[in-house]
């Protein structure tokens, strides 16, 4: 398959099951909602070392939030429900409770419940007050700028992590430009996040390592500086490869995001140095979800 002079490899991205939840953070204005959301979703690029993968899904208009203020929807993914609950509670306590004017609400209403404000309320040292509105329980926790309003619980659902595709280009600036175009398009798709910095990974990994302590290591077949030293997957003109990783609430969400992202990257075309689109295929070692590039782009 070829799109605008860009080869689409006959391969697939391999992904794995996760648990996920969505939270809604509101504040006096969007600036402060972003401060809280960026802190809560910080250091959450990969479950390999961060405990969870998280990111901002989208901005919310006041008409879309429970308290009628500007807000941010954030998605948080983990390998299991217990880990996810711990990550959500820790990050909410350290990053949202502490952020001026913030409030925190559930963003998913069906599934397995986990605490949101249920335990954070104890920060109120006995002065916290419970309120039940519309069948939902909230906590009003007194803090120095007024009150921290937090819903009692949120819900978790089955999800998919590790969807991905690789952009192969003639130079580093060209690869990055294609990634930026892809991310701009993918941010418009609901129910997905791209958890790495700016949505882009320059250190794609393979499963395993020559060092027993490591579960992942550099994807040497796609490293341009290792041509001639390893079994490379790169032709001579490829000098830079970057990866976009996608976590989604369903496999269909990931397919939609991959499609618009690849379309955007290919939009720059071969004349701008974009030569191939490939994917992280680990031979079945990583997970049961297979996203075939050519089927997605057909």
TrEMBL record:
Catalysed reaction(s) here are:
N-formylmethanofuran + 5,6,7,8-tetrahydromethanopterin + H(+) = N(5)-formyl-5,6,7,8-tetrahydromethanopterin + methanofuran
Assembly and partners are described as:
Homotetramer.
Q: Which UniProt keywords apply?
A: Acyltransferase, Cytoplasm, One-carbon metabolism, Transferase
**Boundaries of each Formylmethanofuran: tetrahydromethanopterin formyltransferase Ftr N-terminal domain copy?**
1-143
Source organism's superkingdom?
Bacteria
Give the protein's function: Catalyzes the transfer of a formyl group from 5-formyl tetrahydromethanopterin (5-formyl-H(4)MPT) to methanofuran (MFR) to produce formylmethanofuran (formyl-MFR) and tetrahydromethanopterin (H(4)MPT).
Supply the source organism's classification.
Answer: Bacteria, Pseudomonadati, Pseudomonadota, Gammaproteobacteria, Methylococcales
Organism field: Methylocaldum marinum
Q: Which family does it belong to?
A: Belongs to the FTR family.
SUPFAM superfamilies recorded for this chain?
Formylmethanofuran:tetrahydromethanopterin formyltransferase (SSF55112)
Q: What is this protein called?
A: Formylmethanofuran--tetrahydromethanopterin formyltransferase
Q: Which HAMAP family match?
A: FTR (MF_00579)
* Pathway as given in its UniProt record: One-carbon metabolism; formaldehyde degradation; formate from formaldehyde (H(4)MPT route): step 4/5
> In the record, what terms sit under GO molecular function?
formylmethanofuran-tetrahydromethanopterin N-formyltransferase activity
